[in-house]
Design the sequence.
């Protein structure tokens, strides 16, 4: 065998047995044949190692792994920390906006309540139109006791109701008008001073009838009471 053939031959890496090109195990010792490396003979006939196909991949250094890990961690921190910072700022802005909205809402409610209170005070202070109306037979004699504008009591004893009602000649009426504030207690009492006749009594506030009473017969009495509400 020539030196060239000897150098290109494949040998078992364990026992040195010469191997053919297509074997996967050494026929002598059973050692698996490495596809990447096989023992050969050097130029001086001594065993050596020659790459047959491709060089085996180099093992990664632990330093490279540590460096890669540090790089990934650094990249992670560079990307994540600003995201957390931005999220924190957005949360602060959201809370600040919520606080401002709450403050504006509170002020709006306070203003509304103050306006309502002012309106209520103004409405309570406003004087209302009050009207007492008595209808009787013409020339009927009656006595009237009623609450006046100042909240006091006035009387008209044995007066004649002689104001004939327009369109109703069979009836006469007596009317008392004044203004009173809210909360005033109104009271009217009308007594017939004759042995016959009929009395119709009504109280109006702001043009609305709020009370009425009727009495008929000798010395009969009609009474009405009404408390003007504060609101």
Sequence:
């Amino acid at each position: 065998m020539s030196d060239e053939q000897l150098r290109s031959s494949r040998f078992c890496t364990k026992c040195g047995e010469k191997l053919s090109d297509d074997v996967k195990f050494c026929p002598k010792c059973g050692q698996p044949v490495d596809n990447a490396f096989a023992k050969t003979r050097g130029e001086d006939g001594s065993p050596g190692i020659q790459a047959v196909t491709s060089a085996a991949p180099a093992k990664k250094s632990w330093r490279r792994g540590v460096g890669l890990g540090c790089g990934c961690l650094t990249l992670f921190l560079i990307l994540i920390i600003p995201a957390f910072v931005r999220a924190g700022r957005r949360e602060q802005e959201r809370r600040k906006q919520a606080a401002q909205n709450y403050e504006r809402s509170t002020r709006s409610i306070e203003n509304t309540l103050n306006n309502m209170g002012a309106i209520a005070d103004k409405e309570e202070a406003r004087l209302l139109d009050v009207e007492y109306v008595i209808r009787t037979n013409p020339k009927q004699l009656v006595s009237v006791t009623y609450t006046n504008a100042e909240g006091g009591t006035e009387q008209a004893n044995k007066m004649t109701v002689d104001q004939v009602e327009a369109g109703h000649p069979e009836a006469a009426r007596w009317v008392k008008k004044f203004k009173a504030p809210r909360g005033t207690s109104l009271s009217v009492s009308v007594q017939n001073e004759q042995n016959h006749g009929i009395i119709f009594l009504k109280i109006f506030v702001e043009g609305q009838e709020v009370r009425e009473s009727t009495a008929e017969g000798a010395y009969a009495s009609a009474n009405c009471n009404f408390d003007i509400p504060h609101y």
The radius of gyration is 60 Å.
